[in-house]
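<tokenise_the_fold>
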Amino acid sequence: LVLAMISLLTVLIYPSYQSIQYKIQRSDAQNVLLSLMHAQRLFYSQHHTYTEELDEVLAYAAIDQSTDAYQFTAQACEGEAIQLCVELSAIPNDGEQLTMAYNSRNQKKNW
């Protein structure tokens, strides 16, 4: 009886737990994207260009990228030079969540 109750509670609670974890991971990734964009803008103010090398901008802001759920990238906006526009992406490691993107024109995708 006890085992059956524990199994039932697990079945009922686990989906809620997964949903909360998903929201926390997305929120963390959004915060990292915002911080990376702030660092990119500081980098731009000194070098008059954005950069695809995230290591170069990390010196401009204290950014904790320690999330196992996402990988972060930077690239020139589609059809633009990196000097004019940068797009940052948070790519999920699990393949189930959508890739989020944020560019220097304050446009957000899958936010």
Notes: Strands lie at 70-76, 86-92, 100-103, 108-109.
